[in-house]
Write a structure and sequence with these properties.
By secondary structure, the chain is an alpha/beta fold.
Amino acid sequence: MEAIILSGGLGTRLRPLTYARPKPLLPIANRPMLAHLLDRLPEAVDRAVLAAGYRIDDIRAWVDENPHRVDVTVVEEEEPLGTGGAIKNVEDEITGPFLCFNGDVIANPPLEEMIELREETDALGVLALWEVDEPEHFGVVDLDRDRIRRFVEKPDPGQAPSSLVNAGTYCFHEDVLDWIEPGRKVSLEREIFPELLETREGLRGLPFEGHWVDCGRPDVYLDAHEILLEGETLVADTATLDGEGSDWACLGEDARVSAGARLSRSVLLEGAEVEAGAHLENTIVGAGARVGKDAHLVDTVVADGLTVEAGSDLDGARVGGGKQTPPEEARFEEVR
């Protein structure tokens, strides 16, 4: 059985971190997102197909340099094709029913149960479903037992048929590929799913509990760390943490935090440095970047290899492209 991992996005909402690497290779708890996805594949899957585009050579190199339980094939998406088009683009690699994942989601859906439900019901697809607190901000699923009756996009407050939303993980029958037109951008969610609902086989939904995080924004990228680290600090074997922490932190290989520095809910990628007296809160420091003495960073992202000068005071900034981005131009929570 194959699993498709949709990995072709540009990662624009995570810039400047994704200027130097594709989003699937951004580390969470010191391991690439892609590694977490491959780790959770069930025994029924013996081959993963990566639908990739942006910085594909980096992805191919990582696949070649690291061992995996399953065979991994990387297929190039020469231009963005949407979720449906990306799946159609790897059709030649699919031999039967298959799993499919959005490549920037960290979650624990019950994959074996999804496979079983699809086989038992002969459905064209099974969607993992996640319960949210404010369904009016999402496309909501109307579920009748386990059969999906309709999708309601961003319903008015109080009018949602449920609190369940599409979690970006699927188990499909291979016949789904016949519904996708080749050679153009196609959205599974907007174009294909509504058509599949009208078939006899239809679509099924399987709610799950645990965790679900779409890592497409810096604040949610930090949330994913908090979930996987369970609120604990992680320091790589070659990293040095001499400073203090009032909450969890994650230090990659060869990262260094000097005595007198303080970290709270912050991530340092490999080789990053934080000097004495600096204070970081909800901040991501890119590989090889340096935060100078007594700097104060809140809700800030620093690109690989750049330096935040001593005494800087940044709130909501993106530091990248060779210059500092002022908060009024690029708020941490508003960049999409």
